[in-house]
Amino acid sequence: MEQRAPSYKERFTQSRPSKTAVFWACVGSMVFTMIVGFTLGGWVTGGTAKAAAETMAGDAVAKRQAAICGVRFKADSGKVRKLKELNDTSTWSRGEYVQKQGWATMPGEEAPDSKVADECVKLLVEIK
């Protein structure tokens, strides 16, 4: 009589893994899940999420305060000449120019904010 090889299903139902094998299989699957989650799944730690949230909040505040900078520019008596000077200034030093004019200094603050100045430059360059 010829014996056939057992199928995968038969071999699976007959297998009796030890507690050690089950434990290490669980540990391996957890480690694999974490590796895939942090590298490909977009998971981040709490510190990374907090830093990203603070950066986004700071950028949003700077964009909102840039509108105040634009109002200060419009109130300036030499705005036409200063806008021409701003457009003639190199891209890298436009933020410094806005800071020197005092438009990026927010009410209640001693010094101008560089993020506000950069956002203000974006608004002022669009003015024709």
- Strand share of the residues? under 5%
Helix-and-strand structural type:
mainly alpha
Order of helices and strands: HHHHHH
Mean pLDDT: 92
* End-to-end distance: 96 Å
Helix fraction by DSSP (H/I, runs of at least 4): 55-70%
- Anisotropy-based shape: rod-shaped
Low-pLDDT sequence parts? none
Model description:
With 128 residues, this protein is mainly alpha-helical. It has a domain at 54-125. 69% of the residues lie in helices and 0% in strands. The chain has helices at 8-14, 19-39, 46-75, 79-88, 94-101, 114-125. It is rod-shaped and about 105 Å long.
In short:
The protein is mainly α and 128 residues long. The protein has helices spanning 8-14, 19-39, 46-75, 79-88, 94-101, 114-125.
Q: What labels would you give this structure?
A:
128 residues; 6 helices; mainly alpha; rod-shaped
Furnish the topology, listing elements before pairings.
Blueprint: H1 8-14, H2 19-39, H3 46-75, H4 79-88, H5 94-101, H6 114-125
